[in-house]
Amino acid sequence: MHRRSGGSVVRRTLGALDALTVEDARHATRAMFADAEANGTPVAVPTVRNFAPVFLADCAERWKPATRDAHADGMRRHILPALGGRRVDALTAKDVHNWFDDLSVARAGTANRALAVLSSMMKHAEAFGLRCEDSNPCKGLRRRKSGFEAHDLTDDEFAALGRALDGAEAEWPVAVAALRFLLYTGARKSEALRLKWEHVHGDRAVLPDSKTGPRTLWLASPARAVLAAQQRRTDCPWVFPSSCDEPATVDKAWNAIRAAAGLPTLRIHDLGHSHAAVAVGGGEGLRVQPNGARSWVFRFRRDGTPRRVTLGKPDAVKAGQARAAALAFLAREKGGGTPVPLPASGPTLKAFAAEYVERRSPSWKSSTIKATMSYLNSAILPALGHLRVGSVVRADTARFFHEYGRRKPGGANRAHDILRSMFDCAVAWGHRPEAAGNPCTGIVRYRRPPRGRLLGADDLAKLGAVLRQREAESPACVAAVRLLLLTGCRPGEIRCLRWCEVKPDRLTLTDAKTGPRHVLLGEAARELLNRLAGTASGEWVFPGSKRDGPLGKHELHYFWITTRDVAGIVADARLHDLRHAHAS
User: Fold this and answer.
1) Which of 470, 495, 498, 486 is nearest to 528 (CA)?
2) Lowest model confidence (mean pLDDT) among 233-237, 339-343, 390-394
3) Does the pLDDT at position 396 exceed 70?
4) CATH number, span 155-294
5) Which tens digits make up the pLDDT trace of 397-446?
6) Sequence-ordered list of residues with C-beta below 8 angstroms from that of 431, at least 6 positions apart, any chain
7) According to the 3-state scheme, what is the secondary structure of 315-370?
8) Domain 2-127 has CATH 1.10.150.130
9) Counts for the chain of helices (H) and strands (E), in that order
10) 234 Rama class: left (phi>0) / alpha (psi -120 to 50) / beta
11) Would you state the CATH architecture of domain 349-436?
């Protein structure tokens, strides 16, 4: 059970899953809240505006980035202005009905989406004990019908569309190819436009991330013919590219094509409803030509409506110039006019970085200090160090973030975290106007592919056999790897383990990644440590080759690489992955 007391989050464990039912856990939670109120520490119920960030943060991990952004935008635009001042437990069905009716007058679809977000937030409030169980004020409220209706193409309409596609392929060959692919597969627009060559496998396209999660598209012969006609370049991952940086856009071409076909209200999404019945049997010859026209396009929303601005052709406008133009346009959109430059106030970022590290580093671990200084000296200060702290705008940080991210997306994410913390401190310490805010706000981090691999029983058996063979050669490394498997600790925690941290039934780690923590020891781990204690001669459980320090990071890493290769375990298995297998 999680609750807030005096501004701090308090957690209480109610019991094990096999010993406590959900109803028993809820009853115990209510009893704890009642006890807290009886002892003079009542649980404060937040307003909808104060609870919204908690809800978004708690649920962010299970949402896709697009879902997180859409929910946060709907919360900011439509829910908080009308309901933000009400207490979570005081929000009634009448309040929600009135709000929903007002919002539905102009935007039925927007109202439906906002209602779903509000309903989910109220369920989250029930789980926190902030509302009575089964008291969701959104319950029973029917969604409004939107103005969109699916359009199933007839044979004649498809024939007209085919003729329009034929007439447009000279001007928009890549867009026409993408639209034909949509017709033959029933894919969504984003799935087709963001299709990469690495996703195509013969008669199917395996999409790692669609609207509903991973998905496989089966490719009939017409769809395979479209792909075969596309020119594949080694320096570009996209099947339908506008440049090697971005996938193609088809909106402009689509507007012209559907007008020429006499179908001005037909949506691209409607093509998916007809692909099985009409696309193969329409009788039109659908030709494909490579080398389509390309242009930089900036997409945004104005009052909830998607908008698009063309920024120029790639041969005339470089990527950095297009990105700067897009950021300037966005600033004008948000500010309602030309943005006023911030005054060049405060110290330079290079001078402020020294103060930031000096004041913040006492609470950091040594590894954090080393990593922060590395990012500052190698990436952040060379690019932004000459700017005044008070005059930096989001265009500056966004330009740095994206240029750095093209080379090292993971490094760009880490540098962005450091910059964001620095500007928060700059505002708090008076070096930057509070009205200027944090220029890192709103920059979306790069999504990183999942790393690591869970070792199976066969892999662990192979690893165990090789460890037994190498025990005489590298006893300390072998024992360290075994203890990693038996405890689930991180490699650094095991390498630097001291005998004073080893207790009869647990490890009392004084300096782990997340601070001091205890690690309970199973029987096998205790036996291993007891054997090592019999031959111990210093403070380190796993001494290095020079005996005056812990086992070296590179020494253990090299041992793992060679052991992994001899055992025949997959090449991307990391030493860190052993902690994920310790339970099994």
Assistant:
1) 486
2) 339-343
3) yes
4) 1.10.443.10
5) 988 998 898 888 889 999 999 999 999 998 888 787 766 778 898 888 88
6) 345, 346, 347, 352, 389, 390
7) CCCCHHHHHHHHHHHHHHHHHCCCCCCCCCCCCEHHHHHHHHHHHHHHHCCHHHHH
8) yes
9) 23, 9
10) alpha
11) Orthogonal Bundle (1.10)
Q: In DSSP terms, which residues pair with 543 in a beta bridge? A: 550
End-to-end CA distance of the chain: 28
Which amino acid is residue 120, in one-letter code?
S
Tokens at residue 334, please?
A: 């948000």
pLDDT digits (tens, 9 = 90+) for 438-487: 889 888 888 877 666 777 788 888 889 999 998 888 888 999 999 988 88
Judged by DSSP in three states, 406 sits in: helix
Residue percentage of the chain with pLDDT more than 70: 79
CA distance 493 to 124: 36
Closest listed residue to residue 390, CA positions, set 356, 430, 353, 335 = 430
Residues of the chain with CATH 1.10.150.130: 2-127
Token pair in block for residue 274: 């007809």
Quick one: pLDDT band at residue 342, thresholds 50, 70, 90? very low
Q: Which helix (H) or strand (E) holds 3?
A: strand 2-5
* Amino acid 435: pLDDT: 60
The phi and psi torsions of 211 (rounded to 5 degrees) equal -60, -35
The boundaries of every CATH 1.10.443.10 domain in the chain are 155-294, 457-581
Question: What 3-state DSSP class applies to 451?
Answer: coil
User: Which pLDDT band holds residue 148 (cuts at 50, 70, 90)?
Assistant: low
Could you tell me the fold of the domain covering 457-581?
A: hpI Integrase; Chain A (1.10.443)
Q: Does the pLDDT of residue 291 top 50, yes or no?
A: no
d(CA 318, CA 120): 44
